Amino acid sequence: MISVSYRFRLFCLCLASTGVASAQRLDFDLKAGVPLTNQTRCCNDESRRYILGGGVEARLWRGFAVEGNFLYRRLGQQSSFRYNILEQPGQDTPVVVSNDTRSRYDVVEVPVLGKYYFRHDKKMSPFVSTGYSFRKIRETNEYSAQLQFADGRVENPQGKSSRWGQLDIGAVVGLGLRWNVGRISLVPEFRYTRWGGQPQGPGYKQQVDFLLGIRF
After folding, report:
1. Strand partners, 173
2. Which of 15, 81, 95, 192 has an alpha carbon 20 to 30 Å from 62's alpha carbon atom?
3. What pTM was computed for the model?
């Protein structure tokens, strides 16, 4: 996981304070999108190919702005194993005949980005963004197995477990466009995120997404 230095924390605090003091306008938006890279490393990918969320943006001065989002995605994968029984063990030792696992991952991301709008006073304003994203993943596993004993008995144990993973931090860069349409704005954008920690659950360290925001 990327370590956050004292200087970086101080910079974020100063930036936030400046944004609150100097912001000329707060814009709220709803976001939806799709991932453009593989969701999982497993061949039996059962992920939902959508991203949902919202955010708020504080416009500062001369095209500069600060944006914060709350994004949600759901990943999933399934694995099944079947075993050939070569020999029977003792009566009290079962042989695993099959093992099935279904995993679900609720992924919550909170990107905090600095932005710069080119031609910020025009109807169409391209922008670039960069910052950090904070991620937590809740993993839920459902598993079942088939056990066979030497005396012919068969058992089918099942179980379920759930846990939250550690906080991960990723570096983000983005490119997009703000298009003013009447009282609302359409904001399509591409974002690239490189996560700092070890891959959690099925995910990759590198992530590319397309997002479309409707800003009020």
Report:
1. 130, 192
2. 192
3. 0.77
